[in-house]
Amino acid sequence: MMFERFSPDARTVVVHTQDHARRLGHNHVGPEHLLLALVSLDQPASAVLREHGVTPEGVEEEIVRLVGLGAGSRLFGTLNRDALASVGIDIDAVRARIEESFGPEALARADSAVHGGRRPSRRGPRRAVPTALARHWHRRRAARRPVLTAAAAAPAGLYQAAGARSGGHIRFSPRAKESLANTVREAQARHDSYIGVEHLSLSLITMTSGLVPSVLSALGASAPALRTAITDRYRQAS
Asked: What is the pLDDT of residues 6-63, one digit of tens each?
């Protein structure tokens, strides 16, 4: 299982993504949350990112600028704010008008309607599962689920969304899962038998879609330059 190969510090990054997403009121974990957790650590890869201007404060500011805080943030997460602003559309003003007209929970309801529903099964209506059997399945799934424990207290940040969740698991987006899966490729390329913070960072900065490229660009960081600097730092340390 992939998580069994994660170093303690890499596991801390994965755990802290949940803390950051929860604090910002986001109901999913994306690669941008992984990046925020990564740059906040005291690790060589994290230091390289900060030296190139990718600071925790800068990353968090960009995440909030791009997707906002709290409920409904995913509804605006794929929009290009700068492009829309160039034609006179202010996303923050749109959010404010929606909440003013339909109430502060309108975006949460819309987000749930768009993203929260289950896809209907192609096999027809789902049969009721006996309670004892359902409990057995849940126990088996829980036993297979990797247990990730943070090595440090939950991280702080610049923002705290109103009504942010205090606990509970937040699902990883497909892009976040893809970035985690790509860490295996990075570890194999370096002939490492574990997955560390360096592999997480290399996987993230290689992404060409999602918010991470936008965040890096806004902070003036070059992905190729970051990759070279990170690999050099770890080569010197080995």
From this structure: 999 999 999 999 999 999 988 889 999 999 999 999 999 999 999 999 999 999 999 9
Domain-embedded: residue 81: no
The enclosing domain of 224 has a CATH number of: 1.10.1780.10
Structure tokens given for 55: 């600071």
> Is residue 71 over pLDDT 70?
no
Judge whether residue 166 has pLDDT over 90. no
Mean pLDDT, the chain, whole residue set: 76
- Look at the chain and report how many structural domains it folds into: 1
Assess if residue 140 is contained within a domain.
no
Residues 31 and 210: beta-carbon distance below 8 Å? yes
Q: What is the mean pLDDT of residues 108-125?
A: 45
Angle of helix 211-218 relative to helix 197-205, nearest 10 degrees, comes to: 90
Going from the C-alpha of 230 to that of each of 33, 106, 226, the distances in angstroms are 20, 43, 6
Domain assignment of residue 59, given as a range: 2-67+149-237
Express each pLDDT in 214-223 by its tens digit: 999 999 999 9
Give the pTM.
Answer: 0.68
Q: Give the whole-angstrom CA distance, residue 195 versus residue 193.
A: 7
Query: Would 100 be classed as within a structural domain?
Result: no
Output DSSP code: residue 29.
B
**Among the listed residues 236, 224, 212, the one whose alpha carbon sits nearest the alpha carbon of residue 59:** 212
